[in-house]
Amino acid sequence: MTDRDTDRDIDGRDEPHTAKQGDGTKGDGTQPNVAQPEAEQTDEVQSDAEQIDIEQPDSYQTDAAQTELEQIDAVQPDDVQFDADQTDITPPDSDQTDAAQPEAEQADEVEHYDEVEHYTEQPDITPPEAVLPDMGQIGAVVPEADQLDTDAVAGAAGGGEPMHGKQQDKSRGRTGWARAGSVALNLLGLMIGLGFLGALGVGGGAALYFDKLAQDLPDYEVLADYEPPVTTRVYAGDGSLVAEFARERRIFVPVEAMPDIVKQAFISAEDKKFYQHSGVDIKGVVRAQISNVSNVLNGRRLEGGSTITQQVAKNFLLSSEQRIDRKLKEWLIARRIERAFSKDQILELYLNEIYLGNRSYGVAAAALNYFDKSLEDLTLQEAAYLAAIPKGPSNYHPVRYEARAVDRRNWVIGRMLDDEVVSDSDAAAARATPLGAKIAPALGAREWAAEYFAEEVRKEIAGRYGAEALYDGGLAVRTTLDPALQNAAGRTLRHWLVEYDRRHGWRGPIDNVDLGADWRAEIDGIFKSYYEKRKIAEDLAPWRPALVTEVSKSRAEIALDAQTTGFIPLSEVLWARPYIGSDELGAEVTAVGDVLSVGDLILVVAQGADGHRSVEPGDEEEVDVSEPDPDAYALRQAPAVNGGLVAIDPHTGRVLALVGGYSFQLSEFNRAVQARRQPGSTFKPFVYAAALDNGYTPSSIVLDAPFVAPSVDSWWKPGNYVAGRFYGESTLRLGIEQSRNTMTARLAQDLGIGRIVEYAGRFNLSDRLPRELAISLGSGETTLTRITAAYATFVNGGKSVQPFIIDRVQDRDGTTIFRHDMRVCAACASEEWEGQFEPVLEDTREQVIDPRTAYQMVSMLEGVVRRGTGTRVRRAVNKPVAGKTGTTNEYKDAWFVGFASDLAVGVFVGFDLPNTLGQGEAGGKVAAPIFADFMSEALAEKPGIPFRVPSGIRLVRVNAKTGRPAGADERNVILEAFKASDNLNTVGRRDEMLDFNSMAVGGFEDEIEQFNELDELNGLN
Fold it and tell me: By three-state DSSP, how is residue 905 classified?
């Protein structure tokens, strides 16, 4: 028997073509007579089906109506049904018998097909011509010689030879029974004819239907230029991942770079015959539909049976709507894809596009999101879990449904074992391994500490290239971030903001919730609503929300979720005295009930987990502070005060760390970049720099005495930090070390307000400053980032630096489209060292001030830390550092800005709506500890590098108080930095605005008394 003796059945096996109504066959199972010889019909009918274009030959028959579906067994639309979910084709019940037969039985059926008897006894009768189909009217060319032979019909009916001669005559004389049989045969002939016409009609309709489908198919050739939306990834300076921005997590990886274990896991799980079939696996479809009988009865999700190629067709070119025409289009496109692309190309498209849960599209993104690994580092069990997910991403969630996910993963491993791609021992070991998958953080920053930095990167990329490039362009952004410094900045700022907040008492719970009898069932929903309101946030971890369920004198019972409970002991609420005002607290806490009530929604942390003291110094004897109980928690509250910290490389302007607040999820406002606040005394160094550039020396004398100057609408009367205290003649060094306000104001008046504004512009402190003398004490506005960069100018030798956060940007192909440093270095192109000198790059930085002046300011600011208002820093950092405190009027803002030799850091603390921090909460107390702790950690592994001294500087021993050259036996001596051109025989310029020597002592004391009666004016210290 040749291949032409059979047709292909629904699952791809050779099956006999049984006679059915509408299948285009004669009643005896043979093809109707057409112009072509029967032996050649199969090949001829297919004609151009491989080219998709459907052509109807003149000798029309059912097979000629088939389109590309002839390649997949010519399943017609009326003979199929679709499941509700996968829209995969289900064979009709009428076709199940043949499709389900074993292959051995099929062969037998084909062999004995001609032996089947349709009638046991048939009369000799010739069908009337009326029942013969008019083949010409339906497009079939039927030669007269090939019309139905009545002898042949009769012979076939009787199972023997055709009747001739007398046999025919005898038939004419038969009884009524014979006439009845004749009528029956006539009717049978009519039915056969009508069935034949119907078959041709259905075939013609199917041809037109498929022709229309083929014309409406999307262009599959676009897959050749496939550029999927790819995640933009933000990297730190050391190459570690900082953040991701995308609508869909996806990383495109060429199939050649994918490990075999990953590819085989998906093939075994999804389409084991991927490399054998030509787009559609009919056997797989049949198996799926048989399984769907049980699925429907048991209410389970229906199976599809789609091949990988079909999934590519659907995911890339079609929708997921559950329609029969969509499924047929999927089949047609799958066939076209198979002819246009190699199997590896199809697999590459599939593995980069498939959805794997948690916004992960493609295997590379999923590997990072679930295991924080690249593809080449995945183990067998990890690859198997990824291949398990497509069946139902939400059903195999690694946290919520871990057991179910493990079962499905082990099933995939079993399929791989069946396919002989893994060994028995490897499969057993993989099955015994815990799942180990986790859920990656949401798109954005990977760590809470970098959230503000990542947001600045996002805004800059969106502003430069647009939202489409940011979210879909697959950019690689290399930033300036130092992860170690960033984490230190986040921890330090948070710690000291909480310390300040605890000093000012308990402001009450987040809210009080009415606890019903079924509160356990409602607790998750309660927490969710407050997350949505931004009253609590995930980036507050290790803090977490809790509900107070019971309160006694010594403890409060709490619930952290429906299953987890704990308690808060008295020792963990002693700090929570009621907040009354910035300078006033309520009564001391003696019982937990003084602080908490049933239904309070609060924040807690495991006892001792965040580094804050359980008991204030001196209270240890009043409470039990023994080893913490694992169920014990401490009461916490998100601080109302906020702040920022920024760290900059002073030589390049690279922002190494940036934190804009306590919690990005509670408030996205970036206090390091966006907050424009008065800098207070941190502005003074720029006034002193102007003086040093204009004839003053660090030892020049300026009078510290009451000072009055005209203002815009009144008289301006600055005072020192301690109200009414003035110190007479003082050196410039002493004035800045002790942050003397009246000295600075007097110095600014001597220099002129125009020069002060001009110097502020050189340092890029502000775009607009009021032309009034008060700006010398920091009454203008600037940002933390700008003033920190200005301080960097001092330590780098007077060069201007512009802070930036992005070093380089590459597109999805790896081409650099932006580079911050555009300097050309021809000598850097050498591939290896051959004894040449180190390349020298051009220094394009603007020289803002004299390098000698810059060093003099560095020396004076180092004195602030050693002897002045910044001594808290010296006690924490035993290395060369310098800086300046700052506090604005009424203690509304606290600052510390400073530097080491290769690191400039600024700290700001204040309320978002300016309000007093409280009496005495100055920069030296609030901001300096943050700077000190950060610098201590940042410099811990670095040597103490002295500040670099430029040429043209002389270091002279002088008396620290008077500034005069010191004698051999004199104490209180420092090394003062003078320019080589300075005249050391004089003390320096005297203040001419007030002749101190000519004033009577009584008159001076009267003026001091006058200022003592004024309102407090010493907030600008």
Answer: strand
User: Do strands 232-235 and 241-245 pair parallel, antiparallel, or not at all (unpaired)?
Assistant: antiparallel
Catalytic residue among 270, 447, 455, 729: 270
Dist. CA 393–CA 782, nearest whole Å: 50
pLDDT tens digit sequence for 271-296: 888 988 888 877 766 776 676 676 66
pTM: 0.73
CA 40 to chain centroid, in Å, comes to 61
- Note the pLDDT tens digit of each residue in 173-183: 444 555 555 55
What mean pLDDT comes out for the span 144-171? 39
Model pLDDT, residue 440: 82
Strand residue runs (E) in 173-290:
232-235, 241-245, 249-250
**55 a catalytic residue:** no
Whether 774 and 889 have beta carbons less than 8 Å apart is answered as no
Amino acid at 402: E
Where is mean pLDDT largest: 5-14, 344-353, 380-389?
380-389
- State the Cα–Cα distance between residues 861 and 567, nearest whole angstrom: 49
Which ranges constitute the DSSP H helices of 148-231? 150-158, 166-172, 176-215
Specify which residues 806 forms β-bridges with. Answer: 479
Six-digit token string for 660: 């804009």
Among residues 756, 702, 750, the alpha carbon closest in space to that of 729 is found at: 702
Q: Which residues pair with 910 in a beta bridge?
A: 642, 893
Structure tokens at 726: 């003035």
Residue 240 annotated to the active site: no
Q: Check: CB of residue 559 under 8 Å from CB of residue 523.
A: yes
Query: Taking every pair of C-alpha atoms in the chain, what is the biggest distance, in angstroms?
Result: 164
CB 659 within 8 A of CB 449: yes
**What 3 state SS string does 336-385 have?**
HHHHHCCHHHHHHHHHHHCECCCCEECHHHHHHHHHCCCHHHCCHHHHHH
Please state, in angstroms and rounded to a whole number, the distance separating the CA atoms of residues 333 and 69.
Answer: 11
Average pLDDT over residues 689-693: 96
Q: Is 247:444 a contact under the CB 8 Å cutoff?
A: no
Report in angstroms the alpha-carbon separations of 660 from 441, 504, 643, 769, 785: 20, 22, 7, 24, 10
Cis peptide before 542 (omega within 30 of 0): yes
Closest CA to 142 of 48, 22, 26, 19: 26
Catalytic residue among 268, 360, 614, 681: 681
